[in-house]
TrEMBL record, chain A:
Its EC number is 4.3.1.17. GO terms for molecular function: L-serine ammonia-lyase activity; pyridoxal phosphate binding; threonine deaminase activity. GO terms for biological process: isoleucine biosynthetic process; L-serine catabolic process; L-threonine catabolic process. This is L-serine ammonia-lyase. The gene is SRR. The keyword Lyase applies. The keyword Plastid does not apply. Its cofactor is pyridoxal 5'-phosphate. Residues 30-314 form the Tryptophan synthase beta chain-like PALP domain.
Automatic annotation (TrEMBL), chain B:
Its EC number is 4.3.1.17, 4.3.1.18, 5.1.1.18. Its cofactor is pyridoxal 5'-phosphate. InterPro entries: ACT_ThrD-II-like, Ser/Thr_Dehydratase, Thr_deHydtase_catblc, TrpB-like_PALP, TrpB-like_PALP_sf. It comes from Branchiostoma lanceolatum. CDD domains: ACT_ThrD-II-like (cd04886), Thr-dehyd (cd01562). GO terms for molecular function: ATP binding; D-serine ammonia-lyase activity; L-serine ammonia-lyase activity; pyridoxal phosphate binding; serine racemase activity; threonine deaminase activity. Residues 57-346 form the Tryptophan synthase beta chain-like PALP domain. Belongs to the serine/threonine dehydratase family. It comes from the Eukaryota. This is Serine racemase.
């Protein structure tokens, strides 16, 4: 069951999640590029590392969280007696659909009717049922299915087991570069940021600064930090994967405990970053490029002479979409 | 339509077995309903409506169409309501359903019919199928409330719950039709449905004389198509006005485009009208008979529901109240002093939704108010606020105060109240008094939620709209 008031992650939970991922064989230890500041056209006095989650199975980091989330579903769901349900038009939906199919289970995904049809078709191609409806009807529809049809709901970004799975990114970073000064992570619902920051800080790296990056058009965590509690915002941005309408309460708690700050980038800046990365051989979706964007445009403080790790979170963008975005 | 990047999920990892085939219907052919063909729209004729009237006369209620004294006084219009919510299953849909069932051939009646609906069409078909001894199969999406599913089964329908949204259910229903020979009945566009709905129009002009205008809600367009046809054929001078929810204005857009177009449908109280693509036959039949189109906002639909409960003793669902909502919203000022008939199309409103509509209506009416003030945290701070409220004769419904996140002063506390006032003037009086005493007052529904559990900000206020959420 989704608990919005879960305790902060422990290092045991995150390492435990890492074990689950490794056993499953469904997640890779993705490449970490070393000293790529020149490659990426940045100042040479920044020692830049890129964590390439766009190379992850299913094209984004989401599979990490989903594998661990699925390892914690009730027995009836694991046996296929209870139907699984979630809502997402994006990378979570894809990873979720992939896992459901892997496990030979039954699943349903609700998505906003504003999402492109190809997203629905993609998830259907994994054998799941897809329902499209106005955004404001998603949560009530999920609630009704849980209540009346006894389905099991997997929260797409704020589940604590999901976050523990995402935290494996932090552990892998530390394995490849044990002493980073700065780590920059894209922030949507805040699950990856929270899990990764927790992993890094709880591994003893108290001096590493972890920053989150959000689009200006979807500043839910930024506003939550200002308000002192998780809040909802109106969202409109090209980085659709970073635009849930509210900051997850668990993610917010982890953000306040482990994250230095959250900075904002504009859609135009994101597009410039996507183009830059593409020209350097990396296919990165706008949501996945937000962290790099912040560094590129000087929004991360005190990086001169520092080891900076930037997480590239996903590459699920079609050539058509890239063309449209980049012009 | 093939998926853009619907590649196999293998992505370098060995997958057990092959990629499962999509569960949706892939063939274009199977999605085709021959009775609702955009290439060959059917224009229903007046004789179809009168034939329907004759055939269904013993099977449906000839509902009252009476003057509303209170609402006529309130609106300044000679207002009559055609009370279709009094039909057995609670909506006008029975007319079209019964006629369509009766118009089937004997062979078709033996095999039965199939439809996709979570609403009034499902109920109407199930009920009359049972009455007439014709098998009725209804496909409902998994998001349909269990109550509706059970009700249909109670009426005698064979309900199949399948599909994550109504579109998928429709595909399934069409497939069942193709596989079994059951006739697929589109609930707002089958020509016999249109003819059946038109019988309401016939009754209206028989029951009320010298009508100046009728105001008819539009979802798929079936009701207005049949009724406008009937009314204009007999009394061409009657003005026909169509009303849609502004959250789903498919007919308005289609009229503008000159052909049926699909619009986005947002969540609306008038859920029976949330049809993104109006019927092709309905559009072809109705477009030349409609004199004016208006769209109405949510708060007036809630207000109309409230007024109908309070002044007409009528429980009417959002869709059924849209006609009155348009009048209350001041969208039809030219109707003042005229004789107008408005159908109250259906009464199948969820009881919890009814409760919320009554609250929303009270809020729109200025009889239920929310505000936030900052008061002293010292003893007596809250008491003083309560005294102010009570002195004005305002009733306190709910009070919530919090300290932790106030940044101004540690001796202050933020208090959120929900109160009942007599009317808008009384509410304004309260607002003025609060402003005078406390300076900073946040008034109205759109302030930051700060309850104990995360909100569904999507639902906090009807004016919040969120796009592109894609975690």
């Amino acid at each position: 069951m989704y608990d919005p008031n879960a305790d902060l992650l422990t290092i045991e939970q995150i390492s435990g999640a890492r074990q689950v991922l490794q056993t499953s064989g469904l997640c890779h230890h993705t490449p970490l590029l070393h000293h790529v500041q020149t490659l990426c056209g940045l100042d040479t006095d920044i020692d830049l590392y890129l964590k390439l989650e766009n190379m992850q199975n299913t094209g984004s980091f989401k599979i990490r969280g989903v594998v661990n989330q699925m390892a914690h579903i009730p027995d009836s769901a694991a046996r296929g007696q209870t139907h699984l349900i979630s809502m997402s038009a994006g990378n979570f939906g894809k990873a979720f659909a992939y896992m459901v199919q892997q496990k030979g289970l039954k699943g349903t995904v609700f998505m906003p009717d504003t999402a492109p049809v190809n997203r629905a078709e993609l998830i259907k191609s994994y054998g799941l049922d897809v329902g499209r409806m106005p955004t404001s009807e998603l949560q009530p529809a999920v609630d009704r299915c849980v209540r009346e049809r006894h389905m099991h709901y997997l929260h797409p970004f704020d589940d604590i087991n999901l976050m523990a799975g995402h935290g494996s990114v932090g552990l892998e970073i530390l394995e490849d570069v044990p002493d980073p000064d700065v780590v920059v992570v894209c922030c949507g619902g805040g699950g990856l940021l929270g899990g990764t920051a927790a992993a890094i800080k709880l591994s003893g790296r108290s001096n590493t600064r972890v920053y989150g990056v959000e689009p200006e058009g979807a500043p839910s965590m930024y506003e939550s930090r200002k308000a002192g509690k998780p809040v909802g915002v109106q969202v409109k941005t090209i980085a659709a994967g970073l635009a849930p309408p509210y900051a997850g309460p668990n993610a917010y708690k982890h953000n306040m405990a482990f994250v230095e700050d959250v900075v904002l980038v504009s859609d135009d800046e994101i597009v410039t970053a996507v183009k830059r990365l593409f020209s350097r051989g990396l296919v990165v979706e706008p949501s996945g490029a937000a962290a790099f964007t912040a560094l590129m445009f000087g929004k991360i403080p005190d990086v001169k002479g520092k080891k900076v790790v930037v997480v590239i979170t996903g590459g699920n963008v079609t050539t058509q979409e890239l063309n449209k975005i980049c012009g | 339509m093939p998926a853009e990047e619907a590649t196999s999920p293998s992505e370098g990892v060995q997958v057990n077995g092959h990629l499962e085939k999509s569960s949706s219907i892939s063939s274009e052919e199977e999605l085709f309903d021959p009775m609702c063909d955009p290439e060959n729209p059917i224009v229903v004729k007046f004789q179809d409506v009168s034939a329907a009237a004759y055939k269904i006369r013993n099977g449906i209620e000839r509902t009252p169409c009476t003057k509303s004294v209170q609402l006529s006084a309130l609106t300044g219009i000679d207002l009559h309501f055609k009370k279709e919510f009094l039909q057995q299953t609670g909506s006008f849909k029975e007319r079209g359903a019964r006629y369509t069932l009766m118009a089937l051939t004997k062979e078709q009646q033996k095999i039965g019919v199939v439809a996709a609906s979570a609403g009034n069409h499902a109920l109407a078909l199930s009920y009359h199928g049972n009455q007439l001894g014709i098998p009725v199969t209804v496909v409902m999406p998994i998001i349909a409330p269990l109550m509706k599913v059970n009700l249909c089964r109670q009426y005698g329908g064979n309900v199949i719950v399948k599909g994550a949204d109504i579109g998928v259910s429709r595909s399934h229903a069409l497939k069942i039709g193709k596989d079994t020979g059951m006739v697929y009945i589109n609930g707002y566009d089958h020509p016999h449905i249109l003819a059946g709905q038109g019988t309401m129009g016939l009754e209206i002009v028989e029951q009320v004389s010298d009508i100046d205008a009728v105001v008819i809600p539009i979802g798929g367009g079936g009701l207005i198509a049949g009724s406008a046809l009937a009314i204009k054929s007999l009394y061409p001078s009657v003005k026909v006005i169509g009303v849609e929810s502004e959250r789903c204005a498919g007919f308005t857009e289609s009229m503008k485009a000159g052909k049926v177009v699909t619009v986005g449908a947002q969540s609306t109280l008038a859920d029976g009208l949330a049809v993104p693509t109006v019927g092709v036959n309905a559009f072809a039949t109705a477009r030349n008979y409609i004199d004016q189109m208006v769209t109405v906002g949510e708060e007036f639909i809630a207000l109309a529901i409230l007024r109908l409960v309070e002044m007409e003793k009528a429980v009417v669902e959002g869709a059924g109240a849209t006609g009155l909502a348009a009048v209350l919203a001041g969208l039809l000022p030219e109707l003042k002093g005229k004789r107008v008939v408005i159908p109250l199309c259906g009464g199948n409103i969820d009881t919890t939704v009814l409760g919320r509509c009554i609250e929303r209506g009270l809020a729109a009416d200025g009889r239920l108010c929310r505000f936030v003030v900052t008061v002293s945290d010292r003893p007596g701070g809250i008491a003083e606020l309560c005294k102010l409220i009570a002195k004005l004769g305002v009733s306190l419904k709910d009070i919530f105060h919090e300290r932790a996140w106030l940044t101004s002063d540690i001796f202050s506390v933020q208090v959120k109240c929900v109160v009942e006032t007599r009317d808008k003037e009384h509410a304004e009086q309260l607002q003025t008094e609060l402003q005078r005493r406390y300076g900073n007052v946040t008034w109205g529904p759109d302030f930051d939620y700060s309850g104990p559990s995360p909100p569904h900000p999507l639902l906090v206020s009807s004016s919040t709209s969120c796009q592109d959420q894609d975690p």
